[in-house]
Write a structure and sequence with these properties.
Elements: H1 5-24, E1 33-34, E2 38-43, E3 46-51, E4 54-62, H2 65-79, E5 92-93, E6 95-100, E7 103-109, H3 112-117, E8 127-132, E9 135-142, H4 148-164, E10 174-177, E11 190-196
Parallel strand pairs: 1-5
Antiparallel strand pairs: 2-3, 3-9, 4-7, 4-8, 6-7, 6-10, 9-11, 10-11
Helix pairs in contact: 1-2
């Protein structure tokens, strides 16, 4: 029996955050280092942010539900010590994911200390450690559990706001996830963001 992506990802995510939370302290996003940014503009649920260059570990896979879950677990194994240094790396927020053509990418932000000292290379050739270019992003934030319909509506909402603000897109839209799957829906932080011209 095939497991659909949202269910499979929830299972993998629950395992990941449960294991890491037992080692690092409080449950939920408050216990984790988060990617830094500067807020340039706020308009209700919308923001314009400037992100600095950050180091990420990215799993690339063919577009597909089960492949997405495989990518997530590959990243989990990487930060759990399946890397050339056998180094355990703390979980951070958010988890970025995007689709470009036939490929999907999922990225974990690496902690500042790990990035500064030089992140270890993954044992898995499907995972690449790289620098995520600094830049300005338009962001739409919403709560609730992830569904395809809610994700699609959020992207449409952001696209409409961007058009109203006369902003110029520089990338495809991506999703940023901040919470363990067991977080109550009304407390969840979900974001859609896209790189824009400065």
């Amino acid at each position: 029996m095939k497991i659909k992506f949202p269910i499979a990802l929830a299972i993998g995510g629950t395992l990941l955050f449960t294991v890491l939370s037992s080692c690092t302290g409080p449950l939920g996003r408050a216990g984790y280092e988060s990617a830094p940014y500067k807020t340039v503009k706020t308009d209700g649920a919308f923001e314009v942010r400037d992100y600095p260059e950050i180091v990420v570990a990215t799993a690339t896979m063919k577009n597909g539900n089960n492949n997405q879950n495989s990518g997530f677990m590959s990243l989990f194994r990487y930060i759990s010590g399946k890397n050339e240094a056998e180094q355990k790396i703390a979980m951070t927020t958010p988890v970025f994911s995007k689709t470009a053509g036939d490929l999907q990418e999922m990225s974990f932000v690496l902690p500042e200390e790990v990035a500064k000292d030089g992140a270890p290379k993954a044992n898995n050739n499907n995972i690449a450690v790289s620098k995520r270019q600094a830049g300005r992003f338009a962001v739409y934030r919403y709560s609730g559990r992830w569904t395809e319909a809610r994700d699609k509506k959020a992207r449409q909402t952001l696209a409409k706001w961007i058009e109203e603000q006369n902003l110029t897109l520089r990338s495809v839209m991506e999703k940023a996830s901040y919470d363990p799957p067991f977080t109550p829906p009304f407390m969840r932080r979900n974001e859609i963001l896209v790189r824009i011209a400065e």
